[in-house]
Amino acid sequence: MIILNIVTNAENNLIMSSKRLIHITGPTSSGKTKLAINLASKLKTEIISYDSRQFYKEMKIGTGVPSKVELSKCKHHFIHNKSILEHYNVGKYFIDANNLLKKLFKNFKNIILVGGSGLYADSLIYGLDEFPEVKSDVRNKLINDYNKKGLDFLQNLLKKKDPKYYKIVDINNKQRVIRALEIIISSNKPFSSFLGKKQPGFNYNIITINIEIDRKELYRKINNRVDKMILDGLEDEVKKLSKHQKLNAMQTVGYKEWFGYWNNLYDLNNTIELIKKNTRRYAKRQITWNKKYTNQIKYKHNSKRINYLLKQIQDFED
């Protein structure tokens, strides 16, 4: 029986080593969805999303979720599969997505992984990192500091203690800033030192396609996308969810800015400009984050060379 198990495991590893997880990344508004659907259609496969904002079914307009037409072209997973009232994080996603990959790879040689939340993609690419236990009083003190001194104080503290992580994290995300600081203070080590330590549990090939786009064109597309969201009713969508504004899902670009508007901190035009500004900042952090992927295939925004890209995927050796 032991010998049979060893053979089976070896066979499984051999089978999985021929599978490809095609990871598509790039800044927001760079055309990731379009490329993912194009590749999935040509490779006759399915798409797994790692965009944590698009998990929530109540957030339709402000998250850039694929349209009904786009979703109908090929099967997508982890799109509007959760409610903002559910507690969902990268740990749960890691389990759910890996279980799904096991099932899908029985039927497909290639699976497309696409989205904008780098931490979620990295959980599948590198494995989920293990962090030290946090001291009970540390988090309470950080929350107290946030309430008394504001987010700026915590941002500066993170920049001082871990400049490497400061450059790639969404520094306007209070939860992530506090999470990093509580690990740093509890362990007396940089938060970034705990990232990327584990390898994925499955022996499939990972191919990263990084979409590159001219910065001026990117900002133009971002501004146009925000304008369209406003016309599509973003303000009304956020207003309907405003009673849940303290939830982590609502502390995201395109949603959190409206609460300041309704509290008379700025007018409508300033609110829209703030959403555009914060989205551009988010895109810059994504570009920085994506530089770390080794042996990536760089693909120009709106490139027509899809067949050449398919050949690169076919010839790619991880």
For the secondary structure, the number of strands is 6
Q: What is the CATH-assigned architecture of the largest domain?
A: 3-Layer(aba) Sandwich
Query: How do the strands line up in the largest sheet?
Result: 3-2-4-1-5-6
Structural Rg = 21 Å
Mean pLDDT reading: 89
| Percent range of helical residues | 40-55%
Q: Remind me, CATH topology of the largest domain?
A: Rossmann fold
CATH class of the largest domain reads Alpha Beta
Total tally of structural domains: 2
By DSSP (H or I, 4+ residues per run), the number of helices equals 14
Largest sheet: 6 strands, parallel
Q: What's the overall geometry? A: globular
Oligomeric assembly: single chain
The succession of helices and strands, N to C, reads HEHEHEHEHHHHHEHHHHEH
In angstroms, what separates the terminal alpha carbons?
A: 33 Å
Which structural category do the helix and sheet elements fall into? alpha/beta
Strand content: 5-15%
The H-level CATH homologous superfamily of the largest domain, spelled out, is P-loop containing nucleotide triphosphate hydrolases
What does this structure look like?
By secondary structure, the protein is an alpha/beta fold. The chain folds into 2 domains: about 250 residues, P-loop containing nucleotide triphosphate hydrolases (Rossmann fold); about 60 residues, Orthogonal Bundle (Histone, subunit A), CATH 1.10.20.140. About 50% of the residues lie in helices and about 10% in strands. The chain has 14 helices and 6 strands. Strands 3-2-4-1-5-6 form a 6-stranded parallel sheet, with helices on both faces.
